[in-house]
């Protein structure tokens, strides 16, 4: 998934200094961003005042959109380095192509996990023909220093483990939850889980007190630790929790995101995560010159051009603005 904004704003993130060490209830609202030709997304991370949850550093929520008479998602080839992308659908399909030669249709509740490592490029599009509705989330995970230059690779997992309780099914995308571990490769202590709650359910989800957490609402109406969280919003929960109370006023879909606070300070610009202005500048030049990121074959259109760098030096700082 790409950041397609033509005036790309740098985000500084990482560092433990601003991690909330105790449980909190901080409701984050989204800003709307156009993605490709016809898709609009609600961007929850990076957010004003909150840049990361563990190693999670980018969260877009989109749909449900009726695309029966539209092309749907059309994201032309674009580059990444220093991160993993996570594709997660509730409805519809996304066709993934990348510079490694991967060609994969991702369907609801299947994990599409692309590790960029030192460099990769990819495209995403709604296949033809495609389902009427498109609804999902696209997320990034920052790679730590020891793994950010690894060889790029792509994983697709159609079957994922789940934790169940009366009225609750928690599908584990990444990391582990209550003894269920995802087959997706991770490089920091992290968890991502899709929570399907039936109307009237009241339950408690076990958590790791050393992790910081947030909950993204995908659909329906649910209360998270007593706070109503509506679709397209996200509740930041801080650290120090051993369990999370959940109550569903209707059938509801949530995503639990968490992880050990990410100690390294980062600079994120456009589709790159680096440690310095020089790294970002070099990556942009390599993409524009056709170096390093490879080529995506089969996409019917031109690749994206990188926006201009801002006229200031990009510097890594803390987790909040």
From TrEMBL:
Name under which the protein is recorded: Pirin
A Pfam family assignment: Pirin_C
Pirin C-terminal domain ranges (all copies): 193-293
InterPro entries associated with the record: Pirin, Pirin_C_dom, Pirin_N_dom, RmlC-like_jellyroll, RmlC_Cupin_sf
Organism per entry: Streptomyces chryseus
Protein family per UniProt: Belongs to the pirin family.
Stretches assigned to the Pirin N-terminal domain: 40-141
């Amino acid at each position: 998934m790409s950041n397609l904004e033509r005036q790309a704003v740098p985000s500084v993130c990482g560092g433990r200094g601003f991690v909330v060490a105790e449980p909190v209830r901080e409701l984050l609202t989204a800003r709307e961003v156009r993605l490709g030709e016809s898709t609009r997304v609600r961007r929850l991370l990076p957010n004003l005042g909150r840049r990361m949850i563990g190693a999670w550093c980018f969260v877009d929520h989109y749909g449900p959109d009726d695309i029966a008479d539209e092309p749907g998602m059309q994201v032309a080839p674009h580059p990444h380095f220093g991160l993993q992308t996570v594709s997660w659908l509730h409805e519809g399909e996304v066709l993934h192509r990348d510079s490694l030669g991967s060609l994969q249709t991702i369907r609801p509740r299947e994990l599409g996990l692309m590790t960029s490592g030192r460099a990769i490029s990819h495209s995403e599009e709604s296949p033809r023909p495609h389902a009427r509705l498109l609804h999902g989330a696209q997320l990034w995970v920052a790679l730590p220093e020891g793994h950010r230059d690894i060889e790029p690779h792509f994983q697709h997992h159609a079957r994922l483990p789940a934790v169940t309780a009366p009225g609750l099914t928690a599908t584990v995308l990444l990391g582990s939850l209550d003894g269920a571990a995802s087959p997706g490769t991770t490089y920091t202590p992290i968890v991502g889980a899709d929570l399907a709650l039936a109307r009237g359910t009241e339950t408690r989800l076990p958590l790791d007190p050393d992790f910081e957490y947030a909950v993204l609402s995908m659909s329906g109406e649910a209360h998270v630790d007593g706070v109503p969280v509506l679709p397209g919003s996200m509740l930041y929960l801080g650290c120090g929790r051993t369990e999370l109370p959940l109550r569903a006023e209707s059938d509801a879909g949530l995503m639990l995101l968490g992880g050990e606070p990410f100690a390294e300070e980062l600079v994120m610009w456009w589709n790159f995560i680096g440690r310095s202005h020089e790294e970002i500048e070099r990556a942009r030049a390599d993409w524009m010159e056709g170096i390093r990121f490879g080529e995506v074959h089969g996409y019917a259109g031109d690749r994206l051009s990188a926006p201009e760098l801002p006229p200031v030096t990009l510097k890594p700082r803390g987790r909040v603005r």
